[in-house]
Amino acid sequence: MTRSVEAELPVWPPVNAARGPFALLAEDEQERYAAPVTRVRLPTGATAWLVSRHADVRRLLRHPAFSSDLTRPGFPLLRPLPPQTAEDGKGSFIRMDGAEHSRLRRMLTAEFMIKNVRRIEPLITQTVDRCLDDLAAVGPPADLVSTFALPLPSMVICHLLGVPYADHDFFQAHSRTLLSRNEPMERVQAAVRELQSYLRQLAQERLAHPDAAADDLLSRLVRERVEPGELELDELVGMALLLLIAGHETTANMLGLSVLLLTRRPDQFALLRDEPERVADLVEELLRYLSIVRTGLARVATEDVEIGGQLIRAGEGVIVLIALANRDTEVFDDAEGFDPYRQAHQHLAFGFGVHQCIGQPLARAELRLALVGLARRFPDLRVTAEPEQLPIRDNAVVFGLDVLPVSW
Ligand code: HEM
């Protein structure tokens, strides 16, 4: 493709804060990205394919010829990759393929299985209650993000990992920097290094002072994997960093957006209190409709593959738009509408295939317990700003709200 033709390509992701928190694309953008497979230009100047149909997304995410390794040539980065050292990316299995990926992922699968998450539900409920107490003590009015939506998943993942929550200002600020697409590369790299050295210190303390009774994930992985020589300390650090970031930024944003959506529909907010047995389905529809990983999942083809009638050549980048797949009318009737009674289980908000979110049972439990807890304790909760006035975190890997002013 010549340079001038490339310059004409639509840019992904589109920058348009005016679309508000619920529309995935503004009206004038919809046509630009309407084709099942669209060629786009990325902020780095590179080009990539956007794939947006539910069936194509599933096929692609299951296909072994698409790599998650962001150091491969052609990988569709949304910001330039800082120069990588041998240590970078160690343990971060979200960016690995094949046996390398499954070796590390397998060490965590049991941890996040539904039956094990069920065991920690009392801890989640306790944490929900504690955050609700804090909300009551602060307001009304209050900011729901900083007093509830962010602390809750953050406290839970800290507890599971064995990271002191007292350090939350440090790691929350650094995770934000890491996930932002606007931060200069040097700041992103510095944030990664600081988080790594923080977690390395925690892991080293466990190595130096083993406590056979300690039941947090860091202690267990040190005892069961690092000490026998199955896992390097730096790999453990990378895994812990991935869990720490993925474990709170995602659920926090889902909670903020869910509250904004549900409080605008008082009958649906009341459902949480009056019919808590419906909450599991409601959470699936929230995941589908809000689809917080809106910029998509990035992959690079390692072989020529045809997807949605388009030949994607080896070395070409692909952005998999799970958010648009979640509004595919072939799969979801009235896909643009929010319907708490819909069976939305086919949504792809947690991805699909080998990298499908390992934390989904935990995220689901947190969302269910948090939303029901909130509706019971604050039945008159309301958001005191119009959705269009709220600052949207549109420049981040995970979409969400920075603040959500509420009253009751
Ligand atoms: C992977 C979404 C919560 C840990 C993913 C992926 C998505 C996703 C779309 C796939 C990435 C890809 O294919 O490239 C979400 C959403 C969440 C959530 C929407 C909340 C509502 C969590 C939580 C944790 C977590 C609570 C940790 C406890 C991970 C990890 C991976 C992952 C470790 C990488 C899995 C792999 O590569 O094998 N998540 N996530 N996530 N998520 Fe989540």
From TrEMBL:
Q: Which UniProt keywords apply?
A: Antibiotic biosynthesis, Heme, Iron, Metal-binding, Monooxygenase, NADP, Oxidoreductase
GO MF entry, a single one: iron ion binding
For this protein, the record's Gene3D superfamilies field holds: Cytochrome P450
Recorded metabolic or biological pathway in which this protein acts: Antibiotic biosynthesis; mycinamicin biosynthesis
SUPFAM superfamilies, per database record? Cytochrome P450
Which family would the database say this protein is a member of? Belongs to the cytochrome P450 family.
Protein name in the entry:
Cytochrome P450
This chain's source organism reads Micromonospora yangpuensis
